[in-house]
Automatic annotation (TrEMBL):
Name of the protein described by the UniProt record: ABC transporter ATP-binding protein
Record-linked InterPro entries: AAA+_ATPase, ABC_transporter-like_ATP-bd, ABC_transporter-like_CS, ABC_transpr_LolD-like, MacB-like_ATP-bd, P-loop_NTPase
Organism: Gemmatimonas groenlandica
GO cellular component: membrane protein complex; plasma membrane
Source organism, top-level taxon: Bacteria
GO molecular function: ATP binding; ATP hydrolysis activity; transmembrane transporter activity
Lineage: Bacteria, Pseudomonadati, Gemmatimonadota, Gemmatimonadia, Gemmatimonadales
Coiled-coil region list: none
Entry keywords, A to Z: ATP-binding, Nucleotide-binding, Transport
Length: 252
């Protein structure tokens, strides 16, 4: 059954029509013990993310955004509730299978880039493929070169992180995140350390890669303007979902 939309039929974003769910969160609650107090960071969070969607999660500091991202990516376990990624529920998997699932289907981009300083841009991008052993060394190099060219760094392949600007380092991180052809990308404040112009370019790259590769993207950000560029925004406050907005597609 199609969800209601006020957009003209020719402009409706594809994700409204897809029934296959890449990510399913049900009743997520996360609590921590602090001395004699029990702190609740997330409260009964539930939503679905269809395959190919570009979704942002926003909220003030302390609202639970990063905690939620960790649960959705299977990096942490909820106190209550479940998360399923591409049909597999994290809670039913042992840690080895969880790690394998992340390695095969998940990409990550962080605010701090997390590049290996002793490796070149090309070598950094190749790391996920070398760890997985899924392709030959020649294929790994070809994929890494192609992705660096795609993010505008074809002439910077042999530069080390310290020789690159912040925006260039984040583009290397994007190429690395996409090199294993993930089904879903989790991005935690990817423009947080960048100026406005550079951050805008990163957003445009994320949008393009989402369109070109059909990769689902879940983006955590404090930037409302950036969130409005995604297809849907989930707003958190005090650990709970207070708003879930579908954005109209731009007329570009």
């Amino acid at each position: 059954m199609r969800a209601a939309s006020t957009a003209p039929a020719a402009q409706r974003p594809i994700f409204f029509f897809r029934s296959n769910r890449m990510l399913v969160a049900r009743g997520l609650t996360k609590e921590y013990q602090s001395g004699t107090q029990r702190l609740t960071v997330l409260r009964d969070v539930s939503f679905d993310v269809p395959q190919g969607a570009f979704v942002s999660i926003v909220g003030p500091s302390g609202s639970g955004k990063t905690t939620l991202l960790g649960l959705l990516a299977g990096l942490d376990t909820p106190s209550q509730g479940t998360v399923s990624l591409d049909g597999e529920e994290f809670g039913s998997l042992d840690e080895d299978r969880r790690a394998k699932l992340r390695g095969e289907k998940v990409g990550f981009v962080f605010q701090s880039f997390q590049l290996i300083p002793t490796l070149t841009a090309l070598e950094n991008v190749q790391v996920p493929l070398e760890l997985s052993g899924a392709v030959s060394a020649k294929e790994a190099t070809t994929r890494a070169r192609d992705l660096l060219a795609r993010v505008g760094l074809g002439d910077r392949t042999h530069h080390f992180p310290q020789q690159l600007s912040g925006g260039e380092q984040q583009r290397v991180a994007l190429a690395r995140a996409f090199v294993n052809e993930p089904r879903i990308l989790f991005a935690d404040e990817p423009t947080g350390n960048l100026d406005g112009t550079t951050g805008e370019r990163i957003v445009e790259l994320l949008q393009a890669l989402n369109r070109e590769r059909g990769c689902t993207i879940v983006l955590v950000t404090h930037d409302i303007t950036l969130a409005a560029r995604t297809q849907r925004t989930i707003r958190l406050r005090d650990g709970a979902v207070v708003e879930d907005i579908r954005h109209e597609p731009s007329a570009s």
